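Dear Dr. V.,

Thank you for agreeing to look over these. As mentioned in my earlier message, I'm a first-year student in the group and I'm still getting used to reading structure tokens, so any feedback on how I've presented them would be very welcome. I ran two proteins. I've put each sequence directly above its structure. The first is here:
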Amino acid sequence: MSWFRELVGVAMAGLSARKVRTMLIMLGPVLGAAGIVAAVGLNESAKGDVRETLERLGTNLIVVNADGTFTAGQAPTLPEDASDRARNVSTVERVAGVTEIAGFQVLPSEGGRDFFQTVPVPLLSSDLGLLAVLDSVMKHGRFINESDETNGLRVAVLGEDLADDYQYLAGETRTVSIDGLPYAVVGVMERVDLVQELDTAVIIPKSSAEDDFDVEQKPTTLYVRATDDAVDSTADALPVAVNLGGAESVSVVVPSDLLEAQGAVDTTLRNVLFLMGGLALLVGGVGIANVMSISVIQRSGEIGIRRALGHTRSTIALQFVLEALFVGVLGGAVGVGAGIAVIFIVSAILGWVATMNGPLFAVAGAMALVVSVVAGLYPASKAARLEPLETLRLG
């Protein structure tokens, strides 16, 4: 085995003696491996945030909407006792009704009133248990409570995006104008990823909505939490339970289904990205073959001397194959490392959940190695065919 260790040393010396050339040879497998890891890894990381959201919020939220057309400035409604009807479904755990109040203008008490006059803001009244059903929390302040309902207080809760638009500051005394009536802002609700329409809404007590705007307390939407193992069956049962053969039309949506569909890794896109990385590796392989072929000519004197000293053709060929092997190993490792770095950096910038795929790293590294070795076979064969006297002609 001493001859093999000697050969390894010669191959390593050949690469280290020509650092710039070695770096150019390595560029192909580095870019190819990095491209495969980064492209596929970023595709998965972009969906990691969605998967984390589903784990945090659960997949058992069901939204029941009154279906139909708007009439007389009022959104279509569900029966007044729709929440109780929904609770009669045995697999329903929690229910909260929301009523959309149409036809009233919501404006900030100060700053930008002219701008917001052209921006419709959803105005809602809701059951007190809405936060519990949504598994949401308050970012600032509090939600509407029983005292607000009992006393008909003019208080309001803002969605987080709307609070940002209104430039609301935590703890400040602020009102919003609803059809010219001042409502005190008592809290800001954190973003609800599964029900994003609440992020730009204003929520007021039912009693205030009824007193000030003569709104019937018929819900337009129900938010329902079902048992985890019965979401689909509950979604199928709710339209019948809520409608009970009445004239109201009911539609049911499971928000997590839409989110899961959005978060599902697009197999076609993933394959395209993988093939693009593979193409980069093939181009890099052509580069390796070209540069090493030129290297054979430039090192013809070295090859001739070694042939004159008794080294066989196979020994010369093996030396160049080993050089290509080392380039593949080092280039693949550097490329995988660069790809991982890109995943972490881009995920941190965009707020994604960085997703690491160990098997993908192994495949990318192995592909870089195989392409490098295959690309090195032709230069190795070319070097092995050189005769000592021919090397004198080549210089």
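The second protein is here, in the same arrangement:
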Amino acid sequence: MMRAAGLVLGLAASWACSGAAEAQLRPQIRPAALVQPAPEVSSDAPVAGSPPAVTSEEPRVGPETGLPLPRFVSLKTREGNARRGPGMDHRIDWVFVREDMPLLITAEYGHWRRVEDRDGHGGWVHYALLSGVRTVIVDAPLASLRSRPEERAPETALVEAGVVARLEICQRDWCRINARGHRGWTPKAAIWGVGADEILD
């Protein structure tokens, strides 16, 4: 959906669904000049559904990959079945229907990974459906993208809740993301898909 001569970019967002049910959202990315004043998002604000911190001190590693658990990945396909157990003979409990959505791996078994989304829904997914490319989903009602990782830095865009963006860099409290070509820094507390203590260069 495009409005105002292309100044407002609408992104249809399909969430995970169980059975035939499928929730539909329509998050948007707007140039900051279109909406004033933009709400501030405190980096200290708690966010519902926040994942456990992914830190260098985390002792658990996956038995199949040797990579840390838990860890974030993204969905490689437009649809992914989450099963009750690690195998094709297990029933499908959940279906992810949004390509690039961030997921949290919590366990490994053979070629299967147990994953969950920001709301805790999920199950066992074949590893071929997952990607190491890091993405995040905007959790705040309206997140400001800024030119620098500072509260007073100029805004470059406003991003609505539900937008999926590519994760580029993360400092202690800020991350730089790219949402359909709109790049900027946003408080880590405004997004889901990165550990509270995680640093990415």
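From my reading of the second output: The two ends are 34 Å apart (CA to CA). Residues 1-26, 33-56 have pLDDT under 50 and may be disordered. Does that match how you would interpret it?

Kind regards,
E.
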